[in-house]
Amino acid sequence: MSSETLEIQLIAAVVAVACALPGVFLVLRRMAMMSDAISHAILVGIAAAAIFVTEDLTSPLLIVAAAATGVLTVSLVELLNQTRLIREDAAIGITFPALFSVGVILIARYAGDVHLDTDAVLLGELAFAPFNRFEVLEYDLGPRALWVMGVILCVNVVFIAFFYKELKLVTFDANLAATLGFSPALVHYGMMTLVSITAVGAFDAVGSILVVALMIAPPVTAYLLTNRLSRMIGLSGLIGVASAVAGYWFAHHQDASIAGSMGLMTGVFFALALLFAPNRGIVAIARRRASQRWEFAQTMLTIHLFSHEGLPEAEREAHVNHLSSHLHWEPDFAQQVVRNAERRGFIRNRSGRLNLTEQGREMAQLALVK
Amino acid sequence: MMLLELGKDLILDYTLRTVALGSATLGVVSGALGCYAVLRKQSLLGDAISHAALPGVALAFLFTQSKAPLVLVCGAAIAGWVATLFVIGIVNNTRIKEDSALGLVLSVFFSVGLVLLTVIQKMPTAKQSGLDTFLFGQAAALLERDVVTMASLGGMTLMIMLFFWKEFKLLCFDSAFGASLGFPMAVLDVLLITLLVIAIVLGLQTVGVVLMSAMVVAPAAAARQWTDRLGGMVVLSAFFGAIAGVGGAVISSSAVRIPTGPTIVLSISAIVVFSIAFAPNRGLVWNWVRSQRERKKLQIEVVLNDLYTLASQHADLQHSHSTAVLLAMSANRGNVRHSLRELVSLGWVENVNTDEWALTSEGVIKARYIAERQE
User: Fold this and answer.
1) Which CATH number covers residue B267?
2) Which of A124, A161, B104, B272 has the fewest CB atoms inside 10 Å of its own CB, making it the most exposed?
3) What is the mean pLDDT of residues A211-225?
4) How many domains does chain B fold into?
5) What's the CATH class of domain A3-280?
C-alpha cells in the first residue's frame, strides 16, 4: 500500500467518524434533513468569504464563515417556522435552496477570481486530497485535509464528551431538560454549529452530498442495532470507518468516484443491518413471526385435543384428518404441526389418532388459564 | 420602454423565449403538484426524489446509450419513484423516522449516481457530457424539443391531477374518511407521488437537483398564505411558479454571468417572503396591524373603565378626574393620554378643565356595557 492510498483512507476514515458523531444526535432528534440543508447552504458562506475576505481557499476564515452560515440557516428555518405560516419541513425546503442559489450566483459572477467550483463543493474529490500538504517550516506534516478534519474530529469528540449528559437529556426529553435549567436552545445551536463546522471541513474532501450520507446513514444503521446511546455513537463511528475503507477499495477497483463509493457503502451497510439486525432486522422479524405461528398452532392443537379428551366424540375429533375441517388448517400444515408437537413431546401419534401427553395437557391448561 | 424591449425579446429572441417557456412550464407543473406535497407535510420528499433521480439518468444512458431527454427523464422518474417507495417502506417497517429515511435514501441514491457517472465517464464509447446538466441544471441549454417534451408530459400530469381532483383532495385532508367511502387510498397515494416524481424530473434539466426542491415547496408555500381553498391554492401556486420561471429567465438573460436556475429560485423565494409579509388575513404585516388595532381598542376600554369606576364613587357618574389619577389607576396598562384623546373624538369623554376628564352620557352607557361584558 503506497502512502498515498493510506493517506486517502485515513482522511476518509477521519471524515466518516467526524460526521457520524453529530449525525447520531441529528437522527435521534429527527433533524436529519438539517444536515442536507446545512451542507448545501454553507456554499454561500464559503463563496462570500472566498470572494470578499480572503483569496486563500485554505484559510480558517472560510470555516468560520461557513459555520456562521450554517447557524444562519438554522435560524432562518426557525424564524419561518415561528411565524406559523410555514411548516418546518417546507421551511427547510425553501431556505437552503435560496441560500445555495446565492452561493451559485456569487461563484458564477466571480468565477474568474476564485478557484471555487460548484461541482467540487457538491461532489468533492478525495483523490486529490493528499496533494495538498500541510507544511510547517518546510517540514511535511501530512495532508492538510487530514489535519483539518482531525482538529474538527477532536472538537466534536470534546464537545460530545463534555456535554454528554446535557445532549442526552435534550435529545430524549427536551421538556425535562428545560425544567432542570438546561437550555435546549443553547445545546441545539451548539450542535448545529458543530454540524456546520464538520460539513465545511468535509465538503472539500468528500462533497456536501456525501456529508449527508456519512452523517445520517451510519447512525441510522446503528439505530437498528442498539438501544443505548453510547453504543449507538460507537457503532456509528465504526460503520463510518468501515464504509470509508470499503468505499475506497470499491472505487479503486471500479475506477469510480471515491466519495460516491463511500456513500454507496454506507447504503450497503444499512441494507445489511436492515436485513440481518439481531432484533429489528427483516429476517429476524420474519423468523419471529414464523415461530410464533407454529407456537400458536401447537397450542391450538393441544387445546383442541384437551377439550375433547375422554368424551364420546374424541375418537373422531382427535384424528389428524379431522384437523383441517375443525381448525381450518391446510392438510400439509396440519401434518407439520402434528410432527412438531410430537417432536416436542406434547402429543403421541398412533397412526393418525392423537393423544395428549402429560406435558401437552399441562400446556393446554396453561394456555386456557391465561 | 425597458419593459417593452424585454417583451419584444421574450417573443423574438429564440433562446430567451425557449428558456422562459421551459421555466414557466416547469413552474406551473411543479407549483401545482407541489401544493399536495406541502399540504401532506412531504415537502422534503421533493428534495429526496430529485437527488435520487441521478442514478436513474445514468442507468438510462448506460442501457440505451441515448441522451434523448425523454429516455433520461424516464430513467430519472423510475429511480425517483423507487426511492420514494424505499422511503415509505423504511418508515412503515422500521423504527426509523421519516427525516432519517429521506436523508439516507437521498444520499445513498445520489452516491450510486455519482459512481455510475464516473463509470460512464471512463467508457470509451461515450462522454457523459450532457448528463451532468441534470446535476446543476442548464436552463440556457434548453432546446425547443425539450420544452415540447416538458409541456406535453407536464400537461399530462396536470390532466391526471384534475381528473382525480376530488380523490386527491380527500387524500390530502382526510385519508381515513376517503378509505371509509371505499376509495383505494393507497393506490391514490402512489399515483399522486408518481405525478410529483414526473413534475420533479421534468425540472431537473432546468434548475438541477439541489434547487428543484425549492420549485416544489416554495410556490405552494407562498400560495398557501393567500387562500384557504385547495383550488385557489393550486392555481395561485402554478401562477407563482410560472412568474418565477419567466422572471428568472428574463433577469438572468439581462445580466452577464447570472445562471438561470438560481435566479428562478431566488425569484420564487422573493415571492414567498412577500406572501408571508403581505398576504391578507395570514400575512405578518396585516397581523401586526390587526394586533395594534386590538391593542389600541383594549387600551381605550381600560381607560374608559377606569374613569367609570372612579366616577361610581361619586353621586354623579359624570364626575371629572385628572390625568394623574387615571395614570396611576391604569398602572402602565394603557397609553392613557392617547386613549383619552381617542375617547374625546369618539364623544364618550369630554375635557372639563385643562386636565380634568369626565364621561359623557353616551360614555356612561358604553362603560356600563363594557363593565357588564367583563362580568
Assistant:
1) 1.10.3470.10
2) A161
3) 94
4) 2
5) mainly alpha
Same structural domain, B235 and B364: no
Q: Does B204 touch chain A (CB under 8 A)?
A: no
- Residue B117 covered by a domain: yes
Residues 48-77 of B with CB under 8 A from A: 51
Tell me the residues of chain B between 211 and 230 that have a Cβ less than 8 Å away from chain A. 211, 213-214, 216-218, 220-221, 224-225
- As a whole number, mean pLDDT of residues B306-328 equals 80
In this structure, are B300 and B165 located in the same domain? no
Give the range among A216-225, B139-148, B241-250 with minimum mean pLDDT: B139-148
Write out pLDDT tens, residues B252-272.
Answer: 888 777 888 889 999 999 999
Higher pLDDT pick, A62 / A68:
A68
Q: Could you give the CA distance from residue A135 to residue A148 in angstroms, rounded to a whole number?
A: 13
Cα B174 to Cα B169: distance, rounded to the nearest angstrom: 8
Is the CB of B17 inside 8 Å of chain A's CB atoms? no
Task: Specify whether B249 is located in the same domain as B122.
Answer: yes
Q: Give the list of residues 6+ apart from residue B318 with CB closer than 8 angstroms, or none.
A: B311, B358, B359, B360, B361, B364
Quote the CA–CA distance of A103 and A100 in Å, as a whole number.
5
ipTM of the complex: 0.86
User: What does the pLDDT read at residue B299?
Assistant: 83
CB contact at 8 A, A239 and A269: yes
Confidence (pLDDT) at A121: 61
- By the CB < 8 Å criterion, does B248 face chain A? no
Distance from CA of A213 to the nearest CA of B (A): 5
Tell me, what's the pLDDT at A301?
85
Question: pLDDT, tens digit, for every residue of A99-144?
Answer: 999 988 888 888 665 566 666 666 666 766 777 777 666 777 778 7
Which residues of chain B neighbour A118 with C-beta distances below 8 Å?
136
Among the three residues B222, B253, B282, which one is the final residue of a domain in this structure?
B282
| CATH label, A283-369, candidates 3.20.20.370, 1.20.1250.20, 1.10.10.10, 1.10.600.10 | 1.10.10.10
Show the CA angle centred on residue B228, arms to residues B225 and B229, nearest 5°: 125
Domain boundary among B282, B299, B321: B282
Interchain pair A209, B119: CB under 8 A: no
Q: Is B4 a member of any domain?
A: no
Instruction: Tell me the shortest Cα–Cα distance from B11 to chain A, in angstroms.
Output: 26
Rounded to the nearest angstrom, the minimum Cα separation between B90 and chain A is 9
Residue contacts between A and B (CB atoms, under 8 Å): 199
Flag if A27 and B100 touch (Cβ within 8 Å).
yes
Contacts of B107 in chain A (CB under 8 A): 36, 209-210, 212-213, 216-217, 263, 266
Secondary structure class of B183 (helix, strand, coil): coil
Residue A184 phi/psi, 5-degree rounding, is -60, -35
Q: Cα–Cα distance between A365 and A343 in angstroms, integer?
A: 20
Q: What residues in B contact A85, CB-CB < 8 Å?
A: 224-225, 276, 282, 284
Q: Which domain holds residue B293?
A: 287-374
Residue type, B74: C
- Separation CA B217–CA B196 (nearest Å): 11
The pLDDT score that the predictor gives to residue B273 is 94
**Subunit contact B214:A118, Cβ cutoff 8 A:** no
Work out the minimum CA distance from A2 to partner chain B, whole angstroms.
23
Q: Is B251 near chain A, with CB under 8 Å?
A: no
Grid cell listed for B104:
439516507
Query: Residue B338: how many CB atoms within 10 A of its CB?
Result: 13
Q: What percent of chain A has pLDDT over 70?
A: 92
Mean pLDDT of B248-254: 87
Same domain, B236 and B353: no
pLDDT band, very low/low/confident/very high, at B162 (cuts 50, 70, 90): very high
Domain boundaries, chain A: 3-280, 283-369
- Decide if B215 is inside a domain: yes
